[in-house]
Here is the input.
Amino acid sequence: MLQQNLEALEQTLAEDNDACIDCAKAIVEVVCRVIVESFDSPLVPLKPKMETPRLSDWLTAAVRALKLGDIRDEKFKKLVSSHHKLSTALNDLRNHAGTASHGKDPYLEKLAIHHRRSAVLAADAIVAFLHKAYLDAQLEPASSREPWERFASYNEQIDAQVGLAVDTDDDGHTTLQFLLPNGDTLPLAIEVSRLLYQLDRDAYIEALNATHPNVAKEAAE
Here is the structure.
């Protein structure tokens, strides 16, 4: 959704189309929703409760999710407040002039280029502010949609302290044995084919080729 909105934003801005304002507002809302979804939980509900939340409601929820309101520095609070004002202004401009979401009187004059650029720059400022805070936030690995690389410090900690052994029973079933620092073992039953398929598709193909009857016969000869 973000990618589609970004492409539409670039195209409509280049065409001097007021629909770029709708796209700018949509990008901010999608970013806020992604952030809120990343931290929302039954114990700590963050989603706006109203039936049709406004952009400012989603931004407020995102700020709560990132705990930006917990920072006591007054200058930083003013910075957060300024982004709220930007979102309100962007939403108002979109409601007044956006052509894609609410429609606009076709006889109204198109906005000036600086209005469209202002909307895009406002969205850029809000998204950049939230994205930096998101990268600095501590995510929950159990529910995060982020890739493995996002948890570099956790990965290093596990790799340094957890060992790995492989156990195969009489039926040929494979179990990975993760050796925890406290002496316990964490078993994970998984087929070799599934492991290769999920982690290294090239290795999966190579293993498949190696198990082909002709390949095995040639290797034996």
Summary: The first strand starts at residue 163 and ends at 168. The chain is about 60% helix and 10% strand. The chain has a mean pLDDT of 84. The CA atoms of residues 3 and 75 lie 33 Å apart.
